[in-house]
Amino acid sequence: MRQKVNLYNVLDLEGKVLHENVSAREIAERTGQSQSFVLRAVQRGNILSKKYRVELAQERIPDGNDLAKQKLLEEWDEIRTPFLRVIWVKEMGKGVKCLK
Prior knowledge:
By secondary structure, this protein is of the alpha+beta class. The protein has one domain (about 1-85). The protein is about 35% helix and about 25% strand. The chain has helices at about 25-30, 35-45, 65-75, 75-85; strands at about 5-10, 15-20, 45-50, 50-60. It has a four-stranded antiparallel β-sheet. A hairpin with a 3-residue loop joins β3 and β4 (about 50-60).
């Protein structure tokens, strides 16, 4: 299963955008820092390598399950219809039929 990939914008200290919509791995390769160091800098809002500020971009790369989830949600009413008539019980008592 593919993980969701967050994208980031890299800005200089003056606020000028240097790179848009790049992954943490790409930022790590370009700055020479480790990927975990880049992610920590994003979470804490720190300046990276005393030159760059990294912020979370609005876009993200969808994972492979997004299309499957969307299809499932479109068919949700059809999927749940048989279960609407079911009376759920906590205990098996007299007159309750047990399905096997």
